[in-house]
TrEMBL record:
Example GO BP: Golgi to plasma membrane transport
Family membership: Belongs to the SEC3 family.
Keywords: Coiled coil, Exocytosis, Transport
Pfam families found in the cross-reference section: Sec3-PIP2_bind, Sec3_C-term, Sec3_CC
Biased segments, Polar residues type: 173-190
Domain Exocyst complex component Sec3 PIP2-binding N-terminal: from-to ranges: 47-147
Coiled-coil zones: 285-322
A cellular-component GO term for this protein: exocyst
Keyword Translocase (UniProt): no
GO MF terms, alphabetically ordered: phosphatidylinositol-4,5-bisphosphate binding
Protein name per UniProt: Exocyst complex component Sec3 PIP2-binding N-terminal domain-containing protein
Location of the region described as Disordered in the Swiss-Prot/TrEMBL record: 173-192, 460-480
Amino acid sequence: MAKSSADDAELRRACAAAVAASGARGEEVSFSIRVAKGRGIFEKLGRLAKPRVLALTVKQSTKAEAAKAFLRVLKYSSGAVLEPAKLYKLKHLTKVEVISNDPSGCTFVLGFDNLRSQSVAPPQWTMRNIDDRNRLLFSILTMCKEILSYLPKVVGIDFVELALWAKENTVTLDNQSSTQDGQEKSVTTQTERKVTVTVENDLVSQAKEEEEDMEALLDTYVMGIGEADAFSERLKQELVALEAANVYQLLESEPLIEEVLQGLDAAGATVDDMDEWLRIFNLKLRHMREDIASIESRNNGLEMQSVNNKGLVEELDKLLERLRIPQEFAASLTGGSFEESRMLKNVEACEWLTGAIRSLEVPNLDPCYVNMRAVREKRAELEKLKTTFVQRASEFLRNYFSSLVDFMISDKSYFSQSLDKSCLGSLRKAYCHSLNLLLRREAREFANELRASTKAPKNPAVWLEGSNSGGQNGSSTDTSTVSDAYSKMLTIFIPLLVDESSFFAHFMCFEVPALVPAGAPNVKSRLGGNDPDDDLNLMDPDGNDLKPDDTSAELGTLNDALQELLDGIQEDFYAVVDWAYKIDPLRCISMHGITERYLSGQKADAAGFVRRLLHDLESRISLQFSRFIDEACHQIERNERNVRQTGILAYIPRFAVLASRMEQYIQGQSRDLIDKAYTKLVGTMFTTLDKIAQSDPKTADIVLIENYAAFQNSLYDLANVVQTLAKFYHEASEAYEQACTRHISSLIYIQFERLFQFSRKVDELTYTIAPEEIPFQLGLSKTDLRRVLKSSLSGIDKSIGAMYRRLQKTLTSDELFPSLWDKCKKEFLDKYDSFVQMVTRIYVNEPIMSVAEMKDVLANF
């Protein structure tokens, strides 16, 4: 027999490498063979797959799961390296069928039960020869029997033939085993031979079972296996007898069948007649239903049409009423005079025209009528009437106002008496509306020019976040041009608004006393007084200031009119404030002072809008500054999230720089604003510092000592000037002293624990027993005292040195060490002095190092 690829050890090693590369763990390749061709999923595409390699792998059993068997299909990659292409689980194998259409007998199909629900053709393979086919099928059956304990259904191949082939080829393989493989090869051959015999027996047993069934059938007729002709003749005779019996029974029952058939024919005829009648009745009923539905539909349509026609007529009547132009109104609008006797008719005609135009607009008119030709033509006609009347009225008013102004200037008292008071409201409103647009445009353009012409840093300063150098560089940038721009805005427009308010009150004939414009001297200044008023004040005709009780009843009306005159201009002031805040938030301080200075100069009630504008600006500046303070507090609180911070926190020195800059910007009465900011910032700083210190109890006191000391050092000069900072300076000083005391006490207690613990026990007993009885207590005898003194004071130089080094090691700032060490020595001497006094009082004549000697020891450090 020719050598098969199943015996190729190199192929098996390549398959094992491909399986291991695919990520499968614990799988061993037990069999591998090349395939001539295969058809699977490519069958639907009408093309053959490339040559493949089939490999049987086994995953050995573990405690958690049983052994598993797989059929792997491997293909050659572009580099002639095997790689996995398909994986089948042998536990799903249900049928092995050899294709009968293939004359060579080398083509077979493997049926898996998990592929039935999928639109995938079962895998079909063609081997190189019959031996390769038998090798593969026998290996699959062997693995199913050995691992899965069952055999799939085999179709198209004789079991006995396969078993004989397996027995013959197994012997051949055993004979071909080389001696160089050793004992391991022999054991493997013996194992394969046992499994082969088992499978052979199973295949032969299936054939024997079929033969035994045939013999049992023959034993029924007491015949041997060789009497096939007699057995066939016997079966034919019994079949003829059975057919004769069936024919006789049919002949016996023929009369009954005839009677039943006649009854069925009669019943069928009756049923056919009834079915014909029902079809006729159903047809007539259907026609009646259709007629009734048609009548109802026509009636409903006519009724709906009647209702719609009635509604349409009503709507058209209403629309025609809207579209009709009264002759008297048309005459007044196109050619009527503007004499006083005709003025009421003109006003009535204008009101009608306004209402007619609005009634043809979408909110007041159904949208379906807007594009009607009649509506569009009537709207154009009304617009033409409006344009004609406006031209005539404008020409009349132009001429009238020219003559009126000339007359008013020549004789104002007569003009005020003869003016119709009822017309002032609409006149004032029109004046306010027109001038408001002009003032808002001027303010917007001026604000835009200010922002464009002011050179400011592009990157705003970050005060309490980031690196130290970044904060310092941001704080050194000069941003005075920002506050100068805001001051220029107020300098230009506040007097302008005051003058406009004064002129409006005078020109629109408000019955209020005269207003003195800013900077105009009053009577007192003319008489040589030293208290000139530079603000806008109410004055009587003689030039004297009036009390609030003397103001006119129309002052409230005047302020409402001023609100309408100047409303909207505040948005441009707000825009300048927001722009300045984005460049340098600290400039809110100087802007707040500038606003306060202007606010204190506006006392006139007639300029109420200007005062409200300044109040709003002050509130907005305060709000923006509060926002900056809140953001600064958030920057400080972010330090709390950092892990294990040591040394001086970054925001401590930066706050000193921030406070110095804030003090430079103070103008007017901005001290309250700054003090509130100091209170919030320092409170957040101290709270965050405490939280950072508490995150690590070992270094808590060190963090507090260094940072409180840095706070005092950086704010020493400012605390001498600013009262609020002085208060926080003292708070930091107290917290610093408390932290120093705690840290020094812990150092002393760590180094001399037994000494001062003994002293504390004695002090506690002095409250309950007499002093002379204490030396006789357990653990407090003189022997115990000597033992404590020996362990604590025998190497006092080393102990003091260790405490010195421990304190020096814990501090990150060398500047604080001398003062802290002096505090530590003083605290230790005080504690030791108390201990010596206790020993002298309780343990009389007991020798102990004196305080002076201890002081000399400490002096060496």
